[in-house]
Amino acid sequence: MVTKLGIIGLSPGNGHPFSFSAIINGYDDGKMKESEWDVIYRYLNKKDLSDFGILDAIVTHCWTQEEELTKILAGACNIDHAVKRIEDMIPEVDGVIIARDDYESHYPIAKLFLEKDIPVFIDKPLTLNVEELSYFIPFLKTGKLMSSSSFRFSDEVYTAKKNVHHEQLNFFRGSIVNDWEKYGVHLIEGFSTLTSFEPTVVEYQPGLLDSYLIYLMNQEVLQINCLGNMKPIFKMEIFNKNQYITFDVKDNFSMFKRMLWHFIHSIKTRNPVIEAQVTVNIMKVLIAGNISKAEKRPVTIDEIGL
Q1: Which CATH number fits domain 3-149+253-276: 3.40.50.2000, 3.40.50.720, 3.30.160.270, 3.90.1210.10?
Q2: CATH code for the structural domain at 151-250+284-304
Q3: Is 279 helix (H, G, I), strand (E, B) or coil?
Q4: d(CA 64, CA 83)
């Protein structure tokens, strides 16, 4: 049976509605090229026709904040229904993808579907609002809600997980373009798969760039460097007594596809893809980091509550 999906976007600088929809549906070459998402067009264009499609899913409905943009998205990604109201999707779809990284929009949109028992995927970060996070927790636990950075599913992180010496204490360092809230989460999500991710304290380090130290229960430490507006960099490093691993996360197509596969599969099983507490801990780290920067002090995760 076909799994019908709705896709919801767009936020500035984030072309995920186009990339996610194209990976599932395939795309119209001319219309995608005209959409002006050049980076997305280039990596899609390198793929064979056989690389597109996930299980039995199809994106059947889409909505963005602008009617003309919704039509462009529908045309580029072979989506049959460009709707004028988000609510028009509710009786028509088996799941929705909120492909926006402006976290302030997530709660009001997701609530429409979650309370109709429609599974939802929310682009990173889920929310930096404690009350909203509390609302989402039951849905995370039951598998009705999934939210993740695609770094968790990247080939590069998978390879590192196989090779890192887990019997030794590790120091993890990551450097990424742009800011803590929207991009730091990529590194936190990726590193969370490489260790027992039980954060205790977050400490902002002032300097030429935004740097954050995340202390873990197992005495390992993560350092996240957010480099601001510069040439894209997505570098992850692992240090221990006898080992140094470094890699750049580059293959957007494969990690997006793997992430979407897991969401679509979870629609059928209603089983959580990611343990709820892991997602909650990642959001609490982001919240603690904001407080640490604003108040110029280390912030314990316990201060966030929940």
Answers
A1: 3.40.50.720
A2: 3.30.360.10
A3: helix
A4: 9
Residues 6+ positions from 51 with CB-CB distance below 8 Å: 253, 257
Task: Look at residues 285, 105, 103, 114 and name the one whose alpha carbon lies nearest to residue 192.
Answer: 285
Q: Is 277 helix (H, G, I), strand (E, B) or coil?
A: helix
Are the folds of 3-149+253-276 and 151-250+284-304 the same? no
Dihedrals phi, psi of 214, to nearest 5 degrees: -120, 115
From the list 27, 54, 56, the residue with the least C-alpha distance to 43 is 27
Distance of CA 202 to the CA centre of its chain: 21
C-alpha–C-alpha distance, residues 212 and 290, integer Å: 10
Of 17, 97, 86, 87, whose CA–CA distance to 57 is shortest?
Answer: 97
Parse the chain into domains and list their residue ranges. 3-149+253-276, 151-250+284-304
Q: 68 φ, ψ to 5°?
A: -65, -40
Q: Which of 300, 302, 125, 280 is nearest to 203 (CA)?
A: 300
Q: What confidence tens digit (pLDDT) does each residue in 246-303 have?
A: 999 999 999 999 999 999 999 999 999 999 999 999 999 999 999 999 999 999 999 9
Among 95, 110, 105, smallest CA distance to 11 is for: 105
Tokens 């280390």: give the residue.
Answer: 298
pTM of the model: 0.95
Q: Are 14 and 103 in contact (CB under 8 A)?
A: no
**What is the total residue count of the chain?**
306
Element (H, E) at 57: strand 57-63
Of the pLDDT bands very low, low, confident and very high (cuts 50, 70, 90), residue 22 is: very high
pLDDT of the residue at 230: 80
Could you give the CA distance from residue 235 to residue 286 in angstroms, rounded to a whole number?
19
What does the DSSP assignment read for 177-197?
SB-IIIIIHHHHHHHHTSS--
